Amino acid sequence: MTDEVYPVPREWAEKAFVDADRYAAMYRESVEDPEGFWRREARRIDWIKPFTKVKEASFHEEDFGIKWFSDGTLNLSANCLDRHLDERGDVTAIIWEPDSPDTAGRTISYRELHRMVCRFANALKEQGVTRGDRVTIYLPMVPEAAVAMLACARIGAIHSVVFGGFSPEALEGRIKDCDSRIVVTADEGLRGGKTVPLKANVDTALLACPAVDRVIVLRHSGSAVAMQKGRDLWWDEAVAAVPDDCLPEEMGAEDPLFILYTSGSTGKPKGVLHTTGGYAVWASMTHQYVFDYRPGQIYWCSADVGWVTGHTYIVYAPLANGATQVMFEGVPNWPDPSRIWQVVDKHQVEILYTAPTVIRALEREGDQWVQATSRKSLRLLGTVGEPINPDAWGWYHDVVGEGRCPIVDTWWQTETGAAMITPMPGAIDMKPGSACRPMFGVKPELVDEHGQFLRGAASGALVITDSWPGQMRTVWGDHARFFETYFTTHRGYYFTGDGCRRDEDGYYWITGRIDDVINVSGHRIGTAEVESSLVSHAKVAEAAVVGYPHDIKGTAIYAFVTLNAGEDGSEELRQELVKEVRHDIGGLAAPEVIYFTPALPKTRSGKIMRRILRKIAEGDVSNLGDTSTLADPAVVDQLVANRPVIE
Ligand code: WTA
Fold first, then answer.
1. Residue 385 near ligand 1, beta carbon < 6 Å
2. Smallest Cα–Cα separation from 152: which of 117, 176, 116?
3. Residues with Cβ < 8 Å from 546, sequence gap 6 or more?
4. Closest residue (by CA) to atom 4 of ligand 1?
5. Ligand 1 site-directed mutation target among 263, 272, 383, 413, most atoms within 8 Å of CB
6. What EC number(s) does this enzyme carry (predicted)?
7. Which residues partner with 383 through β-bridges?
8. Residue 244 host element (H or E)
9. CB of 501 closer than 6 angstroms to any ligand 1 atom
10. Of 28, 193, 405, 634, which one has the greatest count of Cβ atoms within 10 A?
């Protein structure tokens, strides 16, 4: 790790919303007088009925519960649209850049977006969707994805967006878990010149979801797709005869806004539930301060709306803040590795927010792809999703940003709603690889294995000791699992699942997941999900999955597989197993390495010793730690001796 420091550039300190002194003062107020701090910050949202209560939260079992602004009412779609119309209706909200540079893009003003959202909201109502209903959205990166989400928010329906890279099986599980009876999709998605069969995937998923009686299909690629009579309806036909205006529902601050499924240590993915008021304040505030965003600036978050980064930093926060943003359908390296920088030049992007995996992949292609473009418009760079190694940080800073643009390395999670530990460009000196300092209202602590707080410079498990407005409120349908997952590892505190180091300056360095979640290219995969997919194959007896460091993906998946007696670990079987995982979850969860082994290292009580498997996968076999509790130590010697070579 490097301890290089990049001081706040003078011009940023002078004109940013938050400079170093203000950061210190605001942070202090936010933790010492949260009521006062949040009462003021919450004014950024238009409330229908003002709140009188601010924070009602406890992480303790006796009185467990999390509520913010609970007696206030609002509509988040009105905050993202209607309130901009008078003064900024003709300002561009979304500049849509399609997958192919040869296809025409679209520019959508706030007024147009408002009309699209109202019409789609009316279409949903016409299909019988009402307040509290769950709407599954499985769309490509097109403006209609934002439209569908905002239309749900407008009528009080709860959206559950499923990333287009998930398989029909994964989609099916998510539709069933939240009892959704309507799915919004497109004929096909387009990514890197290839098509993604979204409608066909929905059709497969729905074979096992009899409760779904309506599918709204956006015409996008224009390819012919099967339409089931009585169930499937084209988007354009659904909105053809509806009025242009739709009154926003008055929602309670604690009414659900969305469910987003994410992987955890155990079992199937959890439906993370976010509510309306606190999330709105939290998303809008962090977007303004972290990106120092002012209306008129061109902002681009390159995430997919299928992930939380897209929910917060493409849909709700920038639109609540009246931003003008680029929305990109494609991939960073197609038609060539210059694409992302060409898009920056084409739309004069000032603020770019992307992921370490993208930066590493493009760095590897060579500087010439970057240098072939101007990038003079860029002023601020951001990253999210996984730890960024100092080398990639340096390349982003020096080559992409030509040393001129601060980098905001934002640490947060699906569960946290928005950025939790992050620099602010005018306030916090940057250290490459460190997410730096806590956001207002966030109280991080590091704990050791006995649950003791660590003081000063230390490494431990990262917990957050008090509630913040945009925190998830429950796991859909399983409140006990919510408490169990996040508040029992270290009683009374929110457990993040991440390991972290704090240095002598109080800077936080996230070291990665310490639970059984693998972060592959910034996408969370539960080891249990991959293992259950592998063992569902008839020839597999047992499987254990761990992560190992990977140049581009950050972490990749390494599977140890034992086969039933008499079966051989052939290349063909390896391919079948990869196919199985793609089928059950999606390509993003496919193991990079499958190691067929006659046995797995287990304790005498039969528990697989993952710690040892992790070391073997990392290639760090000189020090395997304590192996005295193993039932059969010879298993480890064999595993080490026969391990496959990873290029
Ligand atoms: C990791 C994405 C280091 C972390 C917003 C976390 C990071 C998980 C960073 C959440 C960062 C995210 N530095 N690690 N700047 N940002 N992570 O739910 O392990 O998809 O727990 O939310 O990504 O992933 P999720």
1. yes
2. 117
3. 518, 527, 557, 558, 560, 610, 613, 614, 617
4. 386
5. 413
6. 6.2.1.1
7. 354, 409
8. none
9. no
10. 405
What are residue 281's phi and psi, to 5 degrees?
Answer: -65, -45
CA of 130 relative to ligand 1 center, distance in Å: 34
Peptide bond before 9: cis, by omega within 30 degrees of 0? no
Distance CA 422, CA 21 (A): 16
Give residue 1's pLDDT: 46
User: Length of the chain, please?
Assistant: 647
Compute the distance from residue 386 Cα to the ligand 1 centre, in Å: 5
Q: How crowded is the C-beta side of 419, counted as CA atoms within 13 Å?
A: 27
The residue whose CA has the least distance to atom 22 of ligand 1 is: 413
- By the 8 A CB rule, do 383 and 355 touch? yes
**Which ligand 1 atom is nearest residue 510's CA?**
3
Tell me whether strands 444-447 and 523-526 are parallel, antiparallel or unpaired: unpaired
- Does the C-beta of 173 come closer than 6 Å to ligand 1? no
CA max distance for the chain: 74
φ, ψ (nearest 5 deg) of residue 284: -65, -45
Tokens of 393: 């940080």
Assess: ipTM above 0.95.
yes
Q: Quick check: 631 pLDDT over 90?
A: no
- Closest by CA position to 160, among listed 173, 168, 169: 173
- pLDDT tens column, 228-250: 999 999 999 999 999 999 999 99
> For ligand 1, atom 25, which residue shows the shortest CA distance?
413
- 3-state helix/strand/coil string of 437-506: CECCCCCEEEECCCCCECCCCEEEEEEECCCCCCCCCEECCCHHHHHHHHHCCCCCCEEEEEEEEECCCC
Q: Which residues are annotated as a binding site for ATP?
A: 385-387, 409-414, 498, 513, 524
Q: Whole-prediction pTM value?
A: 0.96
pLDDT tens digit string along 541-568? Answer: 999 999 999 999 999 999 999 999 999 9
User: What residues are designated binding site?
Assistant: 191-194, 309, 333, 385-387, 409-414, 498, 513, 521, 524, 535, 537, 540, 582
- Residue 584 pLDDT exceeds 60: yes
